[in-house]
Each structure stands twice: as structure tokens, then as C-alpha cells.
């Protein structure tokens, strides 16, 4: 209750967005340096939705809906295990279906268990996770 999504507003929200993602990057113990410049460049080129709960950032999903590609999904640590991740994936499904994609894909990462919980499976050479999101006409007609 009270969760809503808004497109990232650049340049107005650039600092808050980068700080949010940078904090999650550090908390997750990811290997490698956080690249703020790349994050903001990607945000200019990709659909980025911020999830808010009572006015506070709690999650973000960044994607290329036409390709069904998820480049970033993260939830603030104290907001995890409350269904926000499912809502972020749901936003990506809606946007990608609207853009004509029948799948969602993401690079295999430390978040693999999260994605597996939502039906993503390894494909190709195992470096990509995929979830089919196309409507099933037989299911809808019954």
C-alpha cells in the first residue's frame, strides 16, 4: 500500500538516484567500483522507473523495453522481502509487453536467486537469465 512508480527525472534527480544505487551497490558487496558516470549515461538512454513508498525511494528498475532487457533492478535493503521486487518486475513486464517484447532478459549476477524466484531461467551460454512474458491466448480464452 502506498507504493508508486515515476519515471526518473534527469537532471533533477541525478544525485539522489546515483546515491541510492551507489548505496545498494556497496551494501551488496559487489566486486568492482561503482561507476556513477555510466549509471547516469545509461539512465539517459533507458527507461528508468523509481519506486517510491510514502515519498521515499525504495527501488528502481531500468530497462530497454523494446528489447525486453533489464539492466538494473534493485530494492533498498530495509524494503526487501515486502513484495517491492515483484512490483518492479511487474513494471518491466508491462513496459516490455507494450513495446512488443515477449521476453524479459537480464545478465546473470549476484541477484540470480531473486530473478529465479520470479521465473527467470538461464539461457544461451548461461550468462543471461530469461522469463517469457508473452500473453498465452489459450489461457486467456478459457
Write the layout of secondary structure elements.
Elements lengths: L2 E5 L6 H14 L8 H10 L1 E7 L2 E9 L4 E7 L8 H15 L4 E5 L4 H6 L3 E3 L4 E5 L4 H5 L1
Parallel strand pairs: 4-5
Antiparallel strand pairs: 1-2, 2-3, 3-4, 5-7, 6-7
- Identify the overall geometry: globular
User: Averaging pLDDT over every residue, what do you get?
Assistant: 88
Strand content: 25-35%
| SS-derived structural category | alpha+beta
Number of helices: 5
**Rg, please?**
15 Å
Topology as a string of helices (H) and strands (E): EHHEEEHEHEEH
| Biggest sheet details | 7 strands, mixed
Percent in helix: 25-40%
Number of strands: 7
- As laid out across the biggest beta sheet, the strand order is 1-2-3-4-5-7-6
Low-confidence stretches: none
Describe this structure in words.
The chain is of the alpha+beta class and 142 residues long. Helices cover 35% and strands 29% of the residues. Strand 4 (69-75), helix 3 and strand 5 form a beta-alpha-beta unit.
Write a short abstract of this structure.
The protein has 142 residues and is of the alpha+beta class.
